[in-house]
Amino acid sequence: MKRTVGQLMARTALRVPLFLWTVAVLYPIFWMFLGSFKTNAEIYSNPWGLPETFNFQNYVMAWTDYNISTSVFNSLIVTVLGAILCLILAIPTAYAIERIKFKGSHVLFTLYISAMMIPMVLAWIPLFFLLAQLNLLDNLVGLAVVYALSQLPFTIFVLTSFISTIPKSLEESAAIDGMSPYGILWKIVTPLTMSGIITVTIMNTIQFWNEYFMALIFLQSEGNYTLALAIDYISNEAQYTNAWGTLFASLVIAIIPVIILYAIFQRRITKGMTEGAIKG
Amino acid sequence: MDITEAKTNHKKIATYLSIFPGAGQFYNRQFIKGSVFLFLTIIFMSAFWDIIDIGLWGIVTLGEIPMEDHSIFLLVQGIIALLVIAIGITIYVINLVDAYRNGKRRDLGFEKNSIRQQYQNLIDTGFPYLMLSPGFFLLIFVVIFPILFVILLSFTNYSISNSPPAKLVDWVGFDNYIDIFKMDTWRHTFFNVFKWTIIWTFAATTLQIAVGIFLAVLVNQKELKFKKMIRTIFILPWAVPAFVSILVFAGMFNNTFGTINNDILAFLGIGPISWMTDPFWTKFALIMIQSWLGFPFIFVMVTGVLQSIPNELYEAAQVDGASMWQKFKNITFPIVMYATAPIMITQYTFNFNNFNVIFLFNGGDPAVVGQNGAGATDILISWIYKLTLEVGQYGKAAAITMMLSLVVITVAIWQFRRTKSFQEEDMM
Predict the structure, then answer these.
(1) 8 Å CB contact between A79 and A138
(2) Predicted pLDDT of residue B4
(3) Is the predicted pLDDT of residue B321 greater than 60, yes or no?
(4) Domain chopping of chain B, boundaries
(5) Angle between helices A2-35 and B279-308 in degrees, nearest 10
(6) Residue A256 contacts B, CB cutoff 8 Å
(7) Do A24 and B73 touch (CB under 8 A)?
(8) B112-132 as b/e, with b when 16 or more CB fall inside 10 Å?
(9) CB-based contacts of A241, cutoff 8 Å, min separation 6
(10) Where exactly are the structural domains of chain A?
């Protein structure tokens, strides 16, 4: 009898931290969701009660008055363009590095790995001047190019590990049948790496969608603001206008696409992340 | 065969001729290749001559007439000129090597390749290079260019009070570095910021790793129910964009209407804490927030490792009468650490440069009197950002960036070597 009591206590003791941490994780997220439906008065007086009426006023305000609609569109352009460009550059490079032994392939791989370790922060100011020189400042395409390149080493890194799992015999037999290396890359390797391509693209997409600082530095006019910039703008305004509800509403708008992506691809993302990480 | 070897010395002649690009290839009777090299040279010269000319002049002088010459853009052009020259030299060397090789083939009496073969050759051996060059070329501009720029900038006196177009920037040698260590306010600020950067890195990272491992082990208990749901919840902080959660936290920790003071602490009977204005509590809050933001990654990774540990190990320990703690200490922890150590180290370097949390939560504030542009919670990277974009001390900021890079690169090299030896062990 005594033993079971002891076991019971141990069991509860082990579950308490889990429970507390679950609360800690959900608390800020709920707080934000609730806040997005409340008026300012409610946020101040009764932060935890359910909103008296679920009013969507905050969302309407965010969407129209604060131009979140334009920003969503801008973010979409930058994200899609960046992700595609990154793949176009990364797939051939990853294949060449992984499969073709040529002079300098090892050096190059090391170079890409080291590029991965250089914090992008160091590049912000130099890139600002470079983009200014190239007339790409305050330009969504310019930002997309920078995004794509900033994730290029990581993308190559992940893709090489996926390509390395394709059996070499497939490529060899295709080569014997007279297929050119370009054909092999396009018709055999790319389709077989598809799962890796999807994984890394989802990760890049989320990364680009969430990126804030490069957008802050490289974009200037309000019409070009990405979602993160627009929200930061509202957040700064909120200190004076007290538009906290609007801020929460726009935060929710920003989260929803990401949460949907996660919900659909959760297994793939965690798998890709851990595989890449543990192998690396 | 002896005769041909004595008679011809095509490789030498071809190489010498190729000092004028393409000529050696013509001599080797590879007319298409020769024309390509010649064509490339002409294009290169005509397209880049001005850039190289202005760029080299610019990088040496940084401009001569105020209002007309913009030193910083001249510096940019200078670096571009250097990169263009490097690419040009590479093509030139390829041209020489090619002439030499084909000359040698002729010396040895091989037939020259037919145009078709040449084409096939170019396509096949050139394949990896063709695949690599677009990405690599662009990478030069995003990685190599910024590095060169920061290095060079750290040797100039570029600052908001000495900035183009009104004034010219000059080379000042090591002055920026010397100032940081010699001038009291700079030295004082540098060491304060550096100290907090180190504390921040170790405290925040160690905590997030500890939380991640702890929770992964708890969730991995066999008899626990709702595992899937708990795992999904624990990954949420990872799914929410970091800038969103940090802004939400900034609201929650708000001194006046924040829920931490008004609800949680009030519920526990603790008076309000000035999270945003008291340096100690701001630092405390930052470390807590980072553990919230950073643990899911560790959690997911460790869960993966835990699931791969064979059950027999624990059963054997059970037979030997090992306690839960002993099992963790002697089986779980070593295996987890062995599998994930390299990643754990990257977490430290990540937090060392974790600009987002510091800057978005409270902008490095509260402010501290007598510190050059740095607030109480600024880490090196956010201080550099402020020095550049708010205070306008560009030269100094570049010098500090160089010192920071030194730390990061040292750790990166060390870690890379470790990872390599790890992988080699695995191979055996």
Answers:
(1) no
(2) 47
(3) yes
(4) 3-162, 179-422
(5) 120
(6) no
(7) no
(8) ebeeeebeeeeeeeebbeebb
(9) none
(10) 1-25, 67-279
pLDDT tens-digit readout, B355-369: 888 988 888 788 777
Cβ contact B370:B188 at 8 Å: yes
Rounded CA separation A279/B339 (Å): 9
Q: How far is CA B27 from CA A197, B11, B14, B17, in A?
A: 47, 10, 6, 8
Which residues of chain A fall short of a pLDDT of 70?
1-3, 46-49, 51, 270-280
Considering CB atoms only, which of B149, B211, B404 is closest to A126? B149
* Minimum distance, in Å, between the CA of residue B233 and any CA atom of chain A: 7
Preceding omega of B241 cis (within 30 degrees of 0): no
Instruction: Show the CA angle centred on residue B347, arms to residues A79 and A229, nearest 5°.
Output: 30
Tokens of residue B309, six digits: 């540990």
How far is CA A182 from each of CA A96, A100, A195, A196, B175, rounded to the nearest angstrom? 11, 12, 20, 20, 53
Map tokens 């690419």 to a residue. Answer: B87
Are A273 and B249 inside 8 Å of each other by CB? no
The reply to whether the predicted model has a pTM over 0.95 is: no
Give the CATH fold of the A67-279 domain: MetI-like fold (1.10.3720)
Residue pair B145/B161 in contact (Cβ under 8 Å)? The answer is: no
User: Which of A36, A42, A111, A125 to mutate: most B Cβ within 10 Å?
Assistant: A125
Q: Cα Rg for chain A, rounded, in angstroms?
A: 24
ipTM of the complex model = 0.78
Query: What homologous superfamily is domain B179-422 in, according to CATH?
Result: MetI-like (1.10.3720.10)
